[in-house]
């Protein structure tokens, strides 16, 4: 059984009886309410599940508390029986729990405060488009220090020229190594978060620099940037478009592109189909056979004039006037426009973006530092130089062989747990990526220190994950509820569901003993009155008349001044009658019962007044099998509960129970 494949409704139903949250109370402040065998249920657990199950109606009156206590004791009896049968020792169960634990641990193995801040920050940034220009000096991520120094000096020179009043475009063409500078003079146009991986610092500068000012140098995976913020405007969203493109001639020849695009535009204004015209006229061979479909984009992907035309279209299906770009003349059609939703509606999606981005490493770094502080992490006196002498510089290469060591000093401690040199060597042997350097190592001591820090971070996270139950009572209780939910499923499957499905003789015997319960639905014959009002005072009078008078007298009495009531007769099955007349009335359906249906939008009320009921016919076994199966399962469960109460002692602390009941 793979529990991840259980229908969610089934799993939630099982877990709804055992979902609790730790209160963090001391045992003396959290007395035991009852015991089933050795399993203690404290007041905090019972109160939590009681309030969760009852919601706003959790009044703690004697009736509701005692009813829920009975239900929860039955649940605990079933879990105790599952343990008696050894179901908690199942290796597949343990595997499923380990998988669930890993997923649940993610919540505790990240700095949620930083994740929330970054998610909110990204959401707030996505509301705005920033118009920027930049000057780039390219430096590889692993480039030599001298390359960084030269890049920074060039940008310092560029900044001085800008401060002396030189135009940004002129300075950009002189200093920028971005190949697009020859076409755009360093002007990137409008950009919106999030920027690609490795550009978080650049994104931050883009959103925090005032309009008209210059920021930098800023490091990205491309190198170092100076940026200028030219303007900002609210983000218009993500637009989906099609277009028709008429290109200008490449070399010589008469340019008729404007005349052609104007003719196409005129046809569109007369009602021609955009897709058909795109297929017929558009010279964008990438999409003209797809009705000109260009896809979805945000500001910053295409030429500014193209984007301005697209985002200026007011409604889906609308189209722009002809607009000129370097590619030629376009007419743009808007297919859809998606704007940013509320933070809560976007939060899960944005959290996934943050988790997959380099910026999330900041959250992980913060988590490691927190664990170091909480778990008394400390380095020993073994230096990076000493480690390098033992491991040799070949440790940075693929073909490194682990040395045999005569001494095994401790490298660091997490609480009282020591992590020694041999453990570090095993880690390096098993994790090539942790030690291999794909470039010339210029500072071997520093690189060795970085590798040791990565090992320490790895072990700190492992330590934290292994001790979550000790550190977080809530985590411990969630794991308990999931385990007990699976045990409940397994024992119920064996004792009730499978047995009922396989015991055909028992099922048929149950049917024969209760045959009168299984009949076809009753047919309800009734008078239907349509009343053109929802006024309660008027309806009370109408109801009295319907109950006492014949339909003809009701109509005569109420339709004197105007026709406000209509009448006909009808027949429905009982369930259909109850579903249709659902606004109120008599709960028991007998001859003379009256039920209503209010239509507030139409300002009318419909009544069903039962004139006769035709009883259902007896059903044979096969036709009644589904209902019999359900009832038989309930019967088996009642029998099982009776056996469990004989098998296991339930010790109830009456004084504790009285303490939670409110009059």
Question: What is this entry, summarized?
Answer:
The chain is 49% helix and 18% strand. It is α+β, with helices and mostly antiparallel strands and 663 residues long.
Question: What would the keywords be for this entry?
Answer:
single chain; 663 residues; alpha+beta; Chitinase A, domain 3; five-stranded antiparallel sheet; four-stranded antiparallel sheet; 26 helices; 19 strands; flat; disordered N terminus
How would you characterize this protein structure?
By secondary structure, this protein is of the alpha+beta class. Among the domains are: 128-234, Roll (Chitinase A, domain 3), CATH 3.10.50; 238-338, Chitinase A, domain 3, CATH 3.10.50.40; 375-468, no CATH class; 521-614. The chain is 49% helix and 18% strand. The chain contains 26 helices and 19 strands. A 5-stranded antiparallel sheet has the order 15-14-18-17-16. A 4-stranded antiparallel sheet has the order 4-3-6-5. The protein has a 4-stranded antiparallel sheet with strand order 8-7-10-9. A hairpin with a 4-residue loop joins β17 (594-599) and β18. The protein is flat and about 100 Å long. The model is unreliable at 1-25 (pLDDT under 50).
